[in-house]
Amino acid sequence: MTDQYCDDSNIAGVSFSIHPMSDNFINIITEALNEVDTSKVWMKTDDVTTTVRGKLPHVFDVTKAIFIHAAKTGEHVAFQATYSLGCPGDSSGNAYMAEDKEPLNSAQIKDIKQPVAAKFSLYPLGGGNYMDTIYEQIEAMKKHVTVSPAHYSTRLDGESVAIFNGLEHVFQATVNASSSHTVMTVSISANSPSQK
Amino acid sequence: MTDQYCDDSNIAGVSFSIHPMSDNFINIITEALNEVDTSKVWMKTDDVTTTVRGKLPHVFDVTKAIFIHAAKTGEHVAFQATYSLGCPGDSSGNAYMAEDKEPLNSAQIKDIKQPVAAKFSLYPLGGGNYMDTIYEQIEAMKKHVTVSPAHYSTRLDGESVAIFNGLEHVFQATVNASSSHTVMTVSISANSPSQK
User: Fold this and answer.
1) Cβ separation of A131 and B4 shorter than 8 Å?
2) What is the phi/psi pair of residue B189, to 5°?
C-alpha cells in the first residue's frame, strides 16, 4: 500500500520515551542512559521522544535495557514506544547496519526482576498472510507471561525481560511474514500505584 | 486488508496515558479528570492506559481537556495516545453513539495558553487514495502551528488547543478518505526542561 513514511531499507527503529512519575525524573533517565551500551545503534533524543535505529536485535536490546534500568529505581515509570521496520524515511543510522547481532546489554539485565504490565498492538501495513504468524507468537508468549485482551491492543503481565523478548519475537515474526512496513506500539507501566 | 482488531462499527476511540514527571502525579491526574466533563463518552482506566470511546469529536474533546488541565499545572507532562476508528474489537461504549456532537469541554479550555511539542503518525490500514487528503490537512495545520519532519512521524510545535484541533481534523479527513480502519499515534510534551 502507499505509505508516506517508507523506503526499502531494512533498518529497524523505534521512537520511544521514558516517563518516571517523580521529581527526580531527569536523574533517573540520565542514569539509566549511562548504564546502557548504545554503541551498536544510532540514537538521538529531543524534547518529545528518543529515536533509536539499527539492527532489530539492538533496537530491542537498547530500549529494554534503558527501561529496566529506569524501572529498577522503584519509581513509577512508564515506557511508550513505536517500533518500525521497512520505513526509515531517511538514512540516519544506516552505517550501524554493519554491526554484528550480539546484543550488548542483555547479560547485564537478564537477572533483574521487574514485573510490569504492558499493552501492544501490531500494524503490518504491507498486507500479506501474517495473522497465523502473529497468533502463533502470542501463543508462544503465554509460556512466559500472562496474555489477555484489551481495548485496541493485547495486554501482557509478567517480567520485563520476558515481555521485551516476547515483543521482539512477535515483531520479528510479523516482519518476516508481512515483508513490508510493520509498526508495533507498546505501552509499559512499572511500579504503578494503581496496579492490580 | 485483514485486521485482527476490527469490525464495522463507526465508533471512535483512544487508548491514552498522561505522565506528569512529578512526585505529585496522582493529584495532577485526579484533578485534571475532575475538571473534565466525560458524560458523552465511555471511559475506563487501568494501570497501563485509559480507554475513551464515543463519537470522534468527544474523544478528542475529552483527551484534549484532560491533557490541558494536567499541563497547566506547569509540571513536565507527557501525553501518549493511539486514536482509532473503524476498529472497536468489542461493543463497549456503543450506547454513547446516540449523543449529539456538541463538545462539552472546548469552551472551558479554549483560552488556556499551553505551548507544547508533539509528534504524530497516521496509519490508514484500509488502503485507498488518502495521501492527498493527509497532505492537504497538514498544509492547513501550518496556519496554526509549526510543522516539521521527524523520524517516523511529523512534528508539531504550537499551542495545545491548535495542535489538538489540527490532529482531530487530519484524523477525521483520513477516516473520510480511507473508509476503513485508521490509527493515529500522538506523543505530546509540555513544560519539558529540555525543550528548545
Assistant:
1) yes
2) -125, 130
- β-strand pairing of A115-124 with A182-190: antiparallel
| Cβ count within 10 A of residue B107 | 8
Contact B26 A123 (CB under 8 A): no
Q: pLDDT tens digits, residue range B84-108?
A: 987 655 677 888 888 999 999 999 9
Q: What is the mean pLDDT of residues B114-132?
A: 84
Q: What are phi and psi of B183, to 5 degrees?
A: -125, 140
Burial (CB count <10 Å: 0-12, 13-18, 19+), residue B3: middle
Chain A nearest C-alpha distance from B100 (Å) = 24
Q: Name the 3-class secondary structure at A23.
A: coil
Mean pLDDT of chain A: 88
Cell of A62: 537498547
Does residue A3 surpass a pLDDT of 50?
no
* Segment (H or E) for B188: strand B182-190
> What CATH code is assigned to B12-86+112-190?
3.30.70.930
CATH fold group of domain A12-88+113-190: Alpha-Beta Plaits (3.30.70)
Nearest to A15 among B134, B149, B152 (CB): B152
Q: For chain B, give the mean pLDDT.
A: 88
CB neighbourhood size of A50 (10 A): 20
A48/B82 touch (CB, cutoff 8 Å), yes or no: no
The DSSP line for B21-47 is -STTHHHHHHHHHHHS--TTSEEEE-S
The cell numbers describing A46, all together, are: 529531543
Contacts of A44 in chain B (CB under 8 A): 151
pTM listed for this prediction: 0.91
pLDDT for B169? 93
Mean pLDDT along residues A96-105: 90
- Interface size A-B, in CB pairs within 8 Å, comes to 150
- Average the pLDDT over each of A43-57, A103-117, B90-104 and give the range with the smallest value: B90-104
Determine the 3-state secondary structure of A90 from DSSP. Answer: coil
- Name the phi and psi angles at A7, rounded to 5: -135, -165
